[in-house]
Backbone:
């Protein structure tokens, strides 16, 4: 009986310490995963990849391949359909690519405006809501965040984040 009580209190304390995601956080995560799986199932399966979205509508998915990277720009249409609008093979600079796919630079927890990362508060926040995650070849999530497009401080590496925002703006403007 004593062992059961210890297990109960241990599991309760684990749940109490873990961050509770809002419905909007869960929806952004699910939308990103669904878009990636429905459009790029074969490309992302067993591959490390990054998903970045703005307003759960415009997505950049970067897939690490041997010696190169594939970048997809995907848009979720108003009718619920998703389309790959751009598919590009990239030769990213060594340092940027190394940083993007270096799981040690990312936090393990899901960062939102309510996270301890922003205690006591964030300095500035503006723009549409973004979602970011790097997933390794086993599906483990790194650096997961749902924040505004302009956030200070930013929990995501500035070079990585700048690249993704610039690419998304480029695609959105050219389509």
Residues:
């Amino acid at each position: 009986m004593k062992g059961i009580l210890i297990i109960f209190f241990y599991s309760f304390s684990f749940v109490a310490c873990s961050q509770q995601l809002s419905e909007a956080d869960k929806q952004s995560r699910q939308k990103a995963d669904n878009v990636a799986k429905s459009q790029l199932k074969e490309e992302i399966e067993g591959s490390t990849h990054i998903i970045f979205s703005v307003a759960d509508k415009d997505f950049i998915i970067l897939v690490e391949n041997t010696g190169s990277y594939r970048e997809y720009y995907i848009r979720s249409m108003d009718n619920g359909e998703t389309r790959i609008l751009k598919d590009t093979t990239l030769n990213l600079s060594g340092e940027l690519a190394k940083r993007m796919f270096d799981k040690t630079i990312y936090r393990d927890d899901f960062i939102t405006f309510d996270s301890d990362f922003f205690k006591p508060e964030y300095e500035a926040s503006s723009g549409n809501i973004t979602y970011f995650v790097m997933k390794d070849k086993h599906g483990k999530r790194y650096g997961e965040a749902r924040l505004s497009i302009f956030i200070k401080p930013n929990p995501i590496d500035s070079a990585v984040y700048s690249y993704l925002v610039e690419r998304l703006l480029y695609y959105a403007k050219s389509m």
User: Anything to note?
Assistant: Residues 1-18 have pLDDT under 50 and may be disordered.
